[in-house]
Amino acid sequence: MDATQSTAPIVVTHAGGLRFASQIRTHQIVTDQSERAGGEDSAPSPLELVSAALGSCVALYVHQFLVSRRLPHGGVRVEVTPRNASGPNRIAELSVRVCVPGELPPSTMEMLERVVRSCPVHNTLSAGASVSVAIGAMTEDHAVCG
After folding, report:
1. Architecture of the CATH domain 45-127
2. What Cα–Cα distance (Å) separates residue 142 from each residue in 13, 41, 99, 133, 145?
3. What is the pTM of this model?
4. E-only strand ranges, 62-131
């Protein structure tokens, strides 16, 4: 995909209680809030998905790097630990730990760190993304939001 190209919108709808379903292409991801926050804790929270997106992206890039160099890749593990903040409520810091199977030479470890930092989710979080908001009323058949 071209870096400036838009994709189809991800459509989020209410799924009951504090649950929301996000339709992404042919996939659906549900979020909920913890019981402490008034939800049923039946799914991750939206903020937890930010950490999951980063970890999944890093894991993919690490896996591809190791496979392309014919290095051991089974059992790769990525741990993402968020540090939350308030005022406004947000993630203040994400710590990423990559665990690879076996020892790698220092030069390979340096390349691997550059690979980790090149994942698009890391780039998005590091550089920031502008967020625009538009609010409109739905049509009676709920087909269009004007």
Report:
1. 2-Layer Sandwich (3.30)
2. 11, 28, 47, 19, 7
3. 0.89
4. 77-85, 90-99
